[in-house]
Give the backbone structure.
Amino acid sequence: TAEEVRDWIVYAVQLPKSVGQIFLENGITGYDFLEIIENGGNVLRDELGVEKSSFINKIVKHIQARMLGIGSIPESPKNFSYKLESCKTVSFSWSKCKARVFPVHSYRIQRRAINLFEHAPTSTRSHPG
């Protein structure tokens, strides 16, 4: 999905959220990857508005690696534990995850608010591994 590609651009390719947002706003999915890397990624600059050549090169290289099957979804964290520090603070700990090719470099933790009267949205934050 476009949301998965946006997250991949931000968390795996490690580009700014604004670049990931470009992919989301244009509905770019994995099915579009081949067209994006043609001609050295010119479509990134000409049609999507990615200006920095370093970003374009990085995106093209990561898409090529992804299309070759390099990279994998890491296993779930092991030995997960938490400690309630106060009413507003919780500490988490876990053992590092492993992935087939690239090391895990960040984790995503979701926080869900509990509201007894109506449904509350979920917020997501990333933390360096």
